[in-house]
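Researcher: Please predict.
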Amino acid sequence: MANSNKLVARRQRRTRLKIQRNSVGRPRLSVFRSGKHIYAQIIDDVSGRTVASASTLEKDQRKALKNGSTVDAASVVGKLVAERAVAQGVKDVVFDRGSFRYHGRVKALADAARESGLSF
């Protein structure tokens, strides 16, 4: 039986392949969720650079949030990354959830990003 790392890699590869087929040159909003924090970055794969990023590890976010692993913290990060992306002129993105299921913190981040001006 495959170990959990191989299963995670398989889920992530399956998600990324679907994104590559349907992205049509749009940057992707990539989300990583750890046990204590959540990270989001908008990556332009054509030029190979990060357009905007946000996480619960940033200094002002650590002061404002009690815990970085809550749904509220994820929505703050989603709002922040969307505001930074819109300031850079990026409005249309593709959502890359990686190997994570679309619920809880990942869903809260996506909803907050949509409310702040990103469309996906």
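Model: The two ends are 36 Å apart (CA to CA).
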